[in-house]
Each structure stands twice: as structure tokens, then as C-alpha cells.
Write a structure and sequence with these properties.
It is built from four helices and nine strands, in the order E-H-E-H-E-E-E-E-E-H-E-E-H. With 156 residues, it is of the alpha+beta class. It has one domain: Beta Barrel (Small Protein B, Chain: A).
């Protein structure tokens, strides 16, 4: 009898998103993928750095997300930066569409992962861009925490 192989957990993060944006509301959406995209994603060959989302005609789309071509793929391989549809229910899409009516609100992809069932999911958030002074405040808080941790380490 063949041994079942446990799927490896894959998690690709958009590290800049939490620094650049004030996150307002979070959603988890499925991804509509083609052919070899899931195989490449399971190898961890993806990048969310330039990705952003938008709502159009009652559907939410992610663009700029890079999923590398599958290394063992043939001529049927996918294009790395194609437009991908996010799978959300109507209530979530309506919430997102209503929030996007406000000035300065956008949808930011935060994390791309494969869940235990083997399905590709993406965490997105409604976000508002931070001002320069907000970024400075975050950097100062991070530096203060680092200094406190060092002091506690020396104290113990």
C-alpha cells in the first residue's frame, strides 16, 4: 500500500503591506488557478510584492502576483503574471465594494498559502495608505521594543 505524503505548508508573505498600509478589515479568499500554477505554488515559487487587488463588475481580481512557471511543465505552462480571480461570496464582495467607495481605501494581498485540504488561499485586507509620520511612529515602536528585549535579556 502506498504511503500518503503530507502536503508541505506553503506561506508567501507580503512583508511591506503592514508597513505601508493601515489595515482595516481582513478576508480570506480562494484563488482561481490554471493548470500548473498550483504545482509551482506548492514549490514556493510565488511573490506578492507588486500585487494588488481591485473589484470590477461584482468580482474581485488580483493582478501583479507572480507565480513562476512550473519547472517540469510543458508548452501548457501558465503565464507568470496573469490576472487571477479571487473566490469570495457575494456578501464579502459587497462589503469590499462599499468600502472601496471611500477615498484612499484599497485592497492589499497579505499572505498566499495552501490550506490543509491543498487549496490555494490568499489573505487580503481593506487598507488605507499610511502617512510618513505614521511609518516613523511604527519604526520608533519597533526600535523601542528591540531595546526593551535587549535590556530584559541582559537583566536575566
Amino acid at each position: 500500500m502506498a504511503k500518503k505524503v503530507k502536503p508541505q505548508s506553503v506561506s508567501i508573505l507580503n512583508r511591506k503591506a503592514r508597513f505601508e498600509f493601515e489595515l482595516l478589515e481582513f478576508f480570506t479568499a480562494g484563488l482561481q488557478l490554471q493548470g500548473t500554477e498550483i504545482k509551482s505554488l506548492r514549490e514556493g515559487n510565488a511573490n506578492l510584492a507588486e500585487a494588488y487587488c481591485y473589484e470590477k463588475d461584482g468580482e474581485v481580481w488580483v493582478t501583479g502576483m507572480f507565480i513562476a512557471e512550473y519547472s517540469y511543465g510543458s508548452y501548457l505552462n501558465h503565464t507568470p503574471k496573469r490576472l487571477r480571480k479571487l473566490l469570495l461570496n457575494k456578501k464579502e464582495i459587497k462589503t469590499i465594494a462599499d468600502a472601496l467607495q471611500d477615498v484612499g481605501v484599497t485592497i492589499v494581498p497579505l499572505k498566499l498559502f495552501v490550506n490543509p485540504k491543498g487549496w490555494a488561499k490568499i489573505d487580503i485586507a481593506l487598507a488605507r495608505g499610511k502617512k510618513l509620520h505614521d511609518k516613523r511612529h511604527d519604526l520608533k515602536a519597533k526600535d523601542d521594543k528591540r531595546q526593551m528585549d535587549r535590556a530584559m535579556k541582559d537583566f536575566n
